[in-house]
Amino acid sequence: MYLHEYQAKDILRPFGIPTPDGDVVSYAKDAYAVAENCTASAYVVKAQVHAGGRGKAGGVRKTDSPAKVQEIAEELLGQKLVTEQTGPDGRTIRRVYIESAIDAAREIFVSMLVDAQSGQIALIGSQEGGEDIEALAAQKSIRLERLLISLDDDPDAIEFKEFAQRLSLEGPQTERAAALFRSMYRAFVELDASLIEINPLAVTTDGELVALDVKMAIDDNALYRHPELEDLRDEDAVDKIELAAQRHDVNYIQMDGNIGVVVNGAGLALATLDLLRDAGGEPANFMDIRTTASSMQIARGFDLLLSNSNVEVVLVNIHGGGMTRCDTIIEGIGISLKRNNKVLPLVIRLAGNNADYARTLLCNYGISFIDSENLADAVERVLALVRMEAA
Question: pLDDT tens digits for 220-265?
């Protein structure tokens, strides 16, 4: 779950990460008062959308007048902001964040995320920060420093200081940076974050460090431990179908193809999509049924698949394990098909716990299906059905 900049700053401030003073508004009439309460004589007005490149697109503006702050807020609120990350449709600006402008002597980049290869937390930094950092890194125009942190060990302050020095920070700045990195680490672990990115991290003329912009994401699978964070989800910025699926313990992403896909397990789901694409098929969705999903929740997830008018045939690839039995998933599919009164060609590959019973269930529901012994055969049969539909 991605957080807006103002939310991330509000969360990280108590952990000891310094940010400019400011506040968020949803109505332009409130902007003037927020600007007057800021301690600086200049202000930055920032569109709050889940996308990078806001500055280039005109979504970040600086001014020295509270009246101009309100004018900018009036211009931005309700408008669509189009950046390289939003696509041509853009994102509607529903909030703007107003904060004190900070004069930076220099800007650096720091980010904390999970390193997929080692399974450790990675602290990544660069002596330069600001917009286009990803492009500069890809072009190797900047050098990215890296520090891996094991969850089994308490991070050593000396390591953080050495990392700060690698970012060309000197003297008292190294102490301040080491404290900031430790605060990032503590927030990352305690909040089950998957990303905390500060870009730019300003070094002021007084040698202070201030987080000018923050991107933060929380692991969706850990939100049950943080109900207060769940309330921060911006539902306007989330695909409605994906959000509905998450609430029923199903991971679902709609795609552009015509083959509906039902799988339990993210890795198995990705492998199934790969096999379909390699064979020339076009998946209509990614679906991963979580181990905690009940048959009624699975039925809700399958309802979403059936609501996609592009789906011509469905491939079900289930491996019943210790927690998710084949019959639980098939029961959910049967409930969905019956209550939607819909008939679609169904190719099923079942293996593992209660596979035979699951087949019997489908027959008892009166649902026709093609039974495949293995995934390769299932893919071949699905593509044959698609060709028949197209003929």
Answer: 878 889 888 877 877 565 666 666 666 656 788 889 999 999 999 8
CA distances for 265 relative to 134, 194, 302, 311, 351, angstroms: 31, 20, 15, 21, 13
What is the count of structural domains for the chain?
3
pTM score, whole prediction? 0.71
Residues in the chain: 391
For residue 3, is it within any domain? no
pLDDT 10s digits, 27-83: 999 999 999 989 888 999 999 998 888 888 899 999 999 999 999 999 999 999 988
Which residues are bridge partners to 44 per DSSP? 62, 99
pLDDT per residue over 47-59, tens digit each? Answer: 999 888 888 889 9
Alpha helices for the chain (secondary structure H): 5-12, 31-37, 66-76, 133-138, 157-166, 172-190, 227-230, 240-246, 266-278, 295-306, 326-340, 355-365, 375-390
Single-letter amino acid, residue 227: P
Q: Verify that 381 and 264 share a domain, yes or no.
A: yes
For residue 66, what are the domain limits? 21-101
Query: Based on the domain organization, do 111 and 224 belong to the same domain?
Result: yes
CATH of the domain at 301: 3.40.50.261
CATH number reported for the structural domain that contains residue 172 in this entry: 3.30.470.20
Among 228, 255, 281, the domain boundary falls at 228
